[in-house]
Amino acid sequence: MNAKSESDGRGMGKNRIEALTDGIFAVAMTLLVLDIKPPVHLRFETSEALISHLLTLEHSFAMYAISFLVLAMFWLCHHLQFHFVRHVDRPLLWINLAFLLLAVVVPFSTNLVGDHGHLQFPVVLYAANLLALSLLLFLQLRHLAASPHLTAPHLTREAVTHLHRQLILFGIVPVVSIAASYYSPRLGMYLYVLLVVPAFVPGRIDRLTRPETDGGEPAP
Amino acid sequence: MNAKSESDGRGMGKNRIEALTDGIFAVAMTLLVLDIKPPVHLRFETSEALISHLLTLEHSFAMYAISFLVLAMFWLCHHLQFHFVRHVDRPLLWINLAFLLLAVVVPFSTNLVGDHGHLQFPVVLYAANLLALSLLLFLQLRHLAASPHLTAPHLTREAVTHLHRQLILFGIVPVVSIAASYYSPRLGMYLYVLLVVPAFVPGRIDRLTRPETDGGEPAP
Amino acid sequence: MNAKSESDGRGMGKNRIEALTDGIFAVAMTLLVLDIKPPVHLRFETSEALISHLLTLEHSFAMYAISFLVLAMFWLCHHLQFHFVRHVDRPLLWINLAFLLLAVVVPFSTNLVGDHGHLQFPVVLYAANLLALSLLLFLQLRHLAASPHLTAPHLTREAVTHLHRQLILFGIVPVVSIAASYYSPRLGMYLYVLLVVPAFVPGRIDRLTRPETDGGEPAP
Amino acid sequence: MNAKSESDGRGMGKNRIEALTDGIFAVAMTLLVLDIKPPVHLRFETSEALISHLLTLEHSFAMYAISFLVLAMFWLCHHLQFHFVRHVDRPLLWINLAFLLLAVVVPFSTNLVGDHGHLQFPVVLYAANLLALSLLLFLQLRHLAASPHLTAPHLTREAVTHLHRQLILFGIVPVVSIAASYYSPRLGMYLYVLLVVPAFVPGRIDRLTRPETDGGEPAP
User: What is the pTM (predicted TM-score) of this model?
Assistant: First the structure.
């Protein structure tokens, strides 16, 4: 009865908050590539001239790919936490709106880094933007862990611990990036690849997120 | 049977109207940040020069954040009302299309305020835009209250009263903002933060929106 | 069994085609307003100067509102037809992709009309764009009427006749608009309001689209 | 029980990955048309002058239509594969994120081809972009074929073979396009129409994708 009413969208809007989140991330991730300005007004006589021009955009392309993956990681992390949500209360709603507000700023921050690759400040601003997003995910997790009436029963202590562990990296990498940017702004940005790498390592979270489907099937 | 057929998308399109609404709000809320033009064509030699330039965009950033939250509040208010909708008739459909038509104009209004912070007229236009949105939400609520065949049984008088009370603020703040804009256009805009503050106060509406899940669970 | 598997997204993608359609219409309807260029680079000393400038954009605003409502009407008409779809075959898929391809061009056509209000050709192009959309909806309806294995049982002859009648207006108004544009391009555009007006008239289609919910409830 | 919990969004996010994919494709397919710059700043005295200007945009329009259909084909192919997915594991997730990362680049590649129709390099870049997308769909199919615990039971060997056959064309056409571009860049692009043509041919895949609905209904 409970599960059914959720899929109907009852209880305050988990489904529609997810829809708004997915929509905003889809638009933001697509807009990232608009920041790479193709040479529209320039006319190139030869393919070589065009290629050499495109190579000057190499930094913008790298920043696009990094930001796309970073946004994807945050979307995924948000998604894993929301997987356990059954009801949305006001604090949870506001954490989510603040999260979206700051996620939408990421294309702007990326743009600044892409256009001013030689300066350190855009890298710091970018890191601050991501740190704020990490903090909100951390607050959300704490709120969920403390509010059993909002969550599914399979949000066990073990699951919370794992979600916490995952967030640590989201807090550390931006700080390391700021430190590295004093040495080289570009290195600071490339460090975000670290955020992606561990995601390839299979973890226990895969099992934790689907207890029903594992347990719901009687052994044949 | 009834509940199931709704979740299938039968009855005239509550699900798809919600999908269109979520999509349009997601795009509009993301486009808001495009109005903040980063200094693309300018090259800054030092981080300090870039920072001082970004500080001149402070007004645009503030307007972005305010408009994002204002749109989020309207999305939320629409969402709370639609929570009670079971069937969509023609008047409800047209109220929704007009609501979306005017919601899409908000980035334009925001842009005007952001670019002409010293003038009063953009603040009045912005307020008029929001007042029209509030009026449509008010019309929608009246239509729902008068059409029990369109709504879920738990849209009680108490719930209607609470939704009404919520809308009062959506009508008052823009009017106060216009009045304040005679004194200072900027103050007029900052007043919209008032729209957000009470949303942090937990209200009875939280309970009203999920009677099924509360009542559907037998006490252990 | 059958109904359940549809809501799971089985059968070839009615749900996801609807999601793509809703997404594309949401983006296209939001992008329309981007065509109204606010006076960004101009600085106005007084509100009066800004107002008189905005009044010169009056034609663009009117075109925005008309195109928004026209797109909404086409979305709605598509939605009413898809309401009866149970399975999607290849012809239906391709009709839908062509429909989306041409729907995305509407902001471009609108832009042309908005910027060249004194010329007749943009009005003709706009009408041609809408006529092509109407034709595709007509082809879709014919395909559905001839393919009972794709549709729900309540797509009766009566429902088909009503959907056909609705489409007649979508075919006539653009033709009348072209004729009127010889007299005045602007008049040609304002005629599209005709497309919207009859939508306010309640019709039998409201009943036809929800037989299950009407019939599924036993009389108390 | 299993089927129900999936439609609730449990198991790692097939529903939300689909939502993100649909959102990103909807935005990317709509942004394609933004690449066709209407003659905003030019004022045309006569419809003839405007028409002759629009005819110079003919190449851009053709590239828009081709890219729209190409993206639609990839979306469809992804959709057909995901139809069989029941659970998402990490490799599948990363294949999807890389797929989206490269799909978002398609409007950029299209833009390059549209603006530099006389050069060969953009055609090669475009082909490389599509080849990478095809490769990812191929990797996804291989992963699904080797991971029965992730897929629905009706992903039979026969279905895999058919999905493979479909992908061959997605690999061959870009290669042929590169070869043809040495002769004529424009011809290279028009060859992508080949990708669309066979999609009109009804295949056994139509039956393969809906075994439940075919088999689930007892003969009357």
Answer: 0.86
